TRAP transporter fused permease subunit
Amino acid sequence: MTDTKSQQADDLILAEGVDEEPIESNRRLFSGRAYLVMAGLSTIYAAFHMIALNGVSISDWTGIEIPMLPQFPLETWNFRIVHISGALALGFLLFSAHTFADDDTPQKQTRLLSIVALVLAIPALISGFTASGYHTMINSGTLPQMGGLTTWAAFPGTEIYASEVWWFGTPLLIATFGAIVTGWVERREREVFASSDVVLAICAIVIAIYLIAIYGTAARNAVGTPFVPIGVAFAATAGSALILELTRRVAGLALVIITGIFLLYTFVAHLLPGILAVQSAYSWQRFFGHVYSDAGILGPTTAVSSTYIILFIIFAAFLQASKVGDYFVNFAFATAGRARGGPAKVAIFASGLMGMINGTSAGNVVATGSLTIPLMKRVGYHKKTAGAVEAAASTGGQIMPPIMGAGAFIMAEITGIPYTEIAIAAIIPAILYFVSVYFMVDFEAAKLGMRGMREDELPKFNKLVRQVYLFIPIIILIAALFMGYSVIRAGTLATVAAAVVSWFTPHRMGLRSILKAFELAGIMSIQIIAVCACAGIIVGVISLTGVGARFSAVLLDLAGVSQLLALFFAMCIAILLGMGMPTTAAYAVAASVVAPGLVQLGIPTLTAHFFVFYFAVLSAITPPVALASYAAAGISGANPMETSVASFKIGIAAFIVPYMFFYNSAILMDGTWVEVIRAGVTATVGVFLLSSGVQGWFLGGRSAWFLRVALICAALFMIEGGLITDLIGLGIAAGAYFVQKFLHPKPDASIPVRGAD
């Protein structure tokens, strides 16, 4: 009998399928031919990126020239245009404009509306036929040349101008906006394509055909000026509308509303007072001719999503196919499950490992929280605390090197600082974050007298050690980066390693599994690409209007009063901009508005961007709009607002860490080894004291309120980073220890005040 129980414990698997993508309530679930079409398109889309990023030229290998493209591999702008349009087409076919019922309730059909929507394909095809004609015209060699480039004389009164307005732009806008509106009310079965969504996919492709043709001419130099071709403004208007609608479908309304406010600001800025005002109004043609360029949608956010982000999404898909995510969580259970409050500590380790790969706080909560939150509740955590722990841990995955979600890649793109330097600088801040969350969780477990998990509830550590080779892809990624390989080459090697490692597991990846991984990657990439493109619209507004520079001027004025006040103001802006937005979009926008002002204050570029990045990440657990906390509350069954407040409390030390960058750059590995080690040790002690003060648990017992205040003050002195402040902090902590150890004040003790009356 004992042997049987032992065997059962050996074979116990707590985590299974934790790294599988959750099925959104508006995602279509295709079957039959429709599934094969979507699987094929998704696979081609993801594989295309992997091939192009590694410099594989189909035309060089096969001698086949790809029609409709100026060259292959693609020129940078063309590559980004294809990247966005492909994601838009896939996204509209896959994600409905409305949600589906969870049960098998038959979907109400709107067949007449579907026919009306299908009619909208006619203007979309007319526009596409016209754009294809422009390709033929440009490649014919009949147009004049200027500086080695073909000219595109689309001026008012010319035949080209009239063609762009009536045969390209107008039909495109009719099809785009008509299909968006009909998509809101059209209803089809979940397993079939909606007519309006097919039209939107066609429009996305038409936009790419037109822009690739026109941006290959001298007209590209007119982008951002009043002389931009009218067709570019039409295409950019339709493209922006498609991006906003897909973002609404995959990421909710928050980012769409914020983008809408920025778009409205563009056209009313000349009417506003103060720092928000601009001298003259912007025309529709100039703005939308500017926004679909490398100063907006095709700028840094799309540059990163089309390279680093989609590459690591492919890497994550390969890890998912080899079930590495399950192994990560089981390894965390075997390592930390026995400690008091074990499942909460498992959530910290597992969510940190998973979160750095999957790139979204809320998505990580859904993946690992579905397992860890019920277990936390089972060992005694309140449901709001269980959700808060998972939300805080999942959010921390965004700052965990080497992958750091996706925001670090955008930081490297914007600042020009090598990614490896950013990853190294992130080590101590990431440690401080997870150490603080660990202390908060441990002290909560101590106060509640919790136990760890029993031996028979956990997977055997010895068994998991024999599968430690599943960490090899991560190790190869880190090693390749620090050996000087590019991020793209390192990511490719790690992806190949994930496939090879799977051959030593029951989930061996053959050709079918590899194609399936590419299919998953294509689907998984849609949300982040839409979000990055939407953030690009905001970046375009900021670059055209210069509002970011005016915010920088405000920060400079505040710094004249107090640099600390300027930093606090920058923190508030970064959190407000990030509320309700995914990390990548939140950081991209905040980096455009806030970071330049911090740099002008004299703060080093890396420090300024890390400051903004941290608070963009922490917006996911900051009330009142905390996406990660809301996702956790949905699993735990707690009140969302209570969960967000609890997660804010658990992650409170993380709100202090960015200020440490400013006062002590050694935290970012900027200094001698002695300075770095001292800064790391003292900051860790400070985080411990802060957690003790917030939780009211110090050295094995509950603390009176005045000791908690003293501990928090000691923590702030320790965190400041100077030698004298460290000594003051240690002195206060020693005094608190003496009072706690020898005077034994009651936890509810108060300081008596005599003679006040």
